[in-house]
C-alpha cells in the first residue's frame, strides 16, 4: 500500500486569485442586474452602501444578485428555511478544485464538459454546480436526501435551460449512504465535493450562530436568528461533520476506481487529526489539506485520491 501523506497548501488571508468577489460589493452594479436588491441596500455606520447581513431575506437577495450579475444565473430562488450559502466562499472551493485538477496533469485543461463532478448534498441552492458550470464548463451530478431541496434546485435549473445538459439532480434514497446508489457502475467523476452538515445537533448550530453574532456585535433583535438559514439535514447530523466525513472516507474505497479526487469541506480545524488518522487507514495514494481564507474567517477542504500521479495524468488525458 502506498504511504499516505498530508501535503497542505499555504493559507491565504484573501480569496482565490480567480475569485470574482475579491473586491468590495459594487451595489450599484448589483442593483442594475437585480433591481429587487435596492430595497435592502442602505448606508452602514461608516457611510458605505451595504445590506443587513443578519437579515436572511437581504442575504438571499444579495446571493440572487451575485449569481445573476457574475454568473448569468437567472431567477435564483430558495425557500426561506433552506441554507443560503455565502457565495464568495463557495466560489473559492470551486477554484481550488480546478487548481487540484490542473496540478494532476498540467498539460491537460481543467475546463470543459468532459470534467464530471459530483456534489454531495447539492441542497436547494445548487450553488456549486451553477458556479462550476459557468466558470469552468464542468458537468455536475447533484445528490441530496431531501426531495424538497431537489425540487427547489430543479426550479432554478428550469429558469436556466442552457444548463440542462450540464447539471443533473439525483435523490439519495438511502440516508445512510453517500455514494452508493448515486454513482452508477458505468460512471466516473473527476471530482466529488461536499459541504457536510457541520454540527451535531440543532442546539449546537444555534449556539454557533449566536457566538458568531456576539463576536460581530449583532443587533439584539437578531440574536436568535440563524442568519445563514438552513434546516436539519443542512446544518447538523448525529456525530456532526466528523462522523459524516468518516463515513464518506470509508465509502470512498468502494468507488476508488471511479473517482479521481474525493473532497469535503472541513469547518472545524479540531476535526482534522481524526480525519488524517482515518485517511491513513485507507489505501490512498495522496491527500491534501487546502486552506481558504475570507477576511477573518478561515476554512479548508480535504481532498484524497486512490490514483497514482501517472494514473491521474492518464485519467485527465483520456477525458
Written description of the protein model:
- The chain has 319 residues and is α/β, with parallel strands linked by helices.
- The protein contains ten helices and nine strands.
- It has a single domain, classed as 3-Layer(aba) Sandwich (Rossmann fold).
- α3 packs across α4 and α8 runs parallel beside α9.
- The N terminus is likely disordered.
Low-pLDDT runs = 1-13, 218-228
Give the assembly state of these chains.
single chain
Number of strands: 9
DSSP helix fraction: 25-40%
CATH class: Alpha Beta
Q: SSE string, helix = H, strand = E?
A: HEEHHEHEHEEHHHEHEEH
CA-atom Rg in angstroms = 19 Å
How many discrete structural domains? Answer: 1
Strand content: 15-25%
- The helix/strand class is alpha/beta
Whole-number mean pLDDT: 87
Keywords:
10 helices, two-stranded antiparallel sheet, globular, Rossmann fold, 35% helix, seven-stranded mixed sheet, 319 residues, alpha/beta
Task: Give me a quick take on this structure.
This protein is an alpha/beta fold.
Secondary-structure map with pairings?
Elements: H1 27-33, E1 42-43, E2 49-50, H2 56-71, H3 87-104, E3 116-120, H4 127-136, E4 139-144, H5 147-158, E5 167-171, E6 189-194, H6 202-215, H7 232-235, H8 240-252, E7 259-265, H9 272-279, E8 286-294, E9 297-305, H10 309-317
Parallel strand pairs: 3-4, 3-6, 4-5, 6-7
Antiparallel strand pairs: 1-2, 7-9, 8-9
GO biological process, one term: methylation
InterPro entries: METTL16/RlmF, rRNA_lsu_MeTfrase_F, SAM-dependent_MTases_sf
Biased composition (Polar residues): 1-14
Amino acid at each position: 500500500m502506498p504511504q499516505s501523506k498530508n501535503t497542505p497548501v499555504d493559507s491565504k488571508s484573501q480569496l482565490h486569485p480567480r475569485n470574482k468577489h475579491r473586491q468590495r460589493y459594487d451595489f450599484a452594479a448589483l442593483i442594475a442586474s437585480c433591481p429587487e436588491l435596492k430595497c435592502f441596500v442602505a448606508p452602514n455606520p461608516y457611510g458605505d452602501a451595504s445590506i443587513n447581513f443578519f437579515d436572511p431575506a437581504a442575504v438571499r437577495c444579495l446571493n440572487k444578485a451575485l449569481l445573476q450579475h457574475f454568473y448569468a444565473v437567472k431567477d435564483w430562488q430558495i425557500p426561506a428555511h433552506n441554507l443560503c450559502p455565502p457565495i464568495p466562499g463557495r466560489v473559492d472551493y470551486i477554484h481550488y478544485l480546478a487548481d487540484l485538477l490542473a496540478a494532476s496533469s498540467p498539460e491537460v485543461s481543467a475546463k470543459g464538459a468532459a470534467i464530471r463532478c459530483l456534489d454531495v448534498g447539492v441542497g436547494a441552492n445548487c450553488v456549486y454546480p451553477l458556479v462550476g458550470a459557468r466558470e469552468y464548463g464542468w458537468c455536475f451530478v447533484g445528490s441530496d436526501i431531501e426531495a424538497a431541496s431537489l425540487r427547489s434546485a430543479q426550479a432554478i435549473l428550469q429558469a436556466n435551460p442552457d444548463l440542462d445538459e450540464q447539471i443533473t439532480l439525483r435523490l439519495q434514497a438511502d440516508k445512510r449512504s453517500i455514494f452508493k446508489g448515486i454513482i452508477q457502475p458505468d460512471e466516473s467523476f473527476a471530482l466529488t465535493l461536499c459541504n457536510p452538515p457541520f454540527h451535531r445537533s440543532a442546539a449546537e448550530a444555534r449556539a454557533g450562530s449566536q457566538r458568531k453574532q456576539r463576536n460581530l456585535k449583532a443587533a439584539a433583535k437578531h440574536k436568535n436568528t440563524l442568519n445563514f438559514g438552513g434546516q436539519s439535514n443542512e446544518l447538523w447530523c448525529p456525530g456532526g461533520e466528523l462522523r459524516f466525513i468518516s463515513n464518506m472516507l470509508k465509502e470512498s474505497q468502494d468507488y476508488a476506481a471511479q473517482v479521481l479526487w474525493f473532497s469535503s469541506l472541513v469547518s472545524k480545524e479540531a476535526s482534522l487529526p481524526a480525519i488524517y488518522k482515518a485517511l491513513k487507514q485507507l489505501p490512498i495514494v495522496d491527500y491534501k489539506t487546502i486552506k481558504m481564507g475570507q477576511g477573518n474567517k478561515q476554512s479548508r477542504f480535504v481532498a484524497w485520491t486512490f490514483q497514482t500521479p501517472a494514473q491521474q495524468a492518464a485519467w485527465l488525458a483520456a477525458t
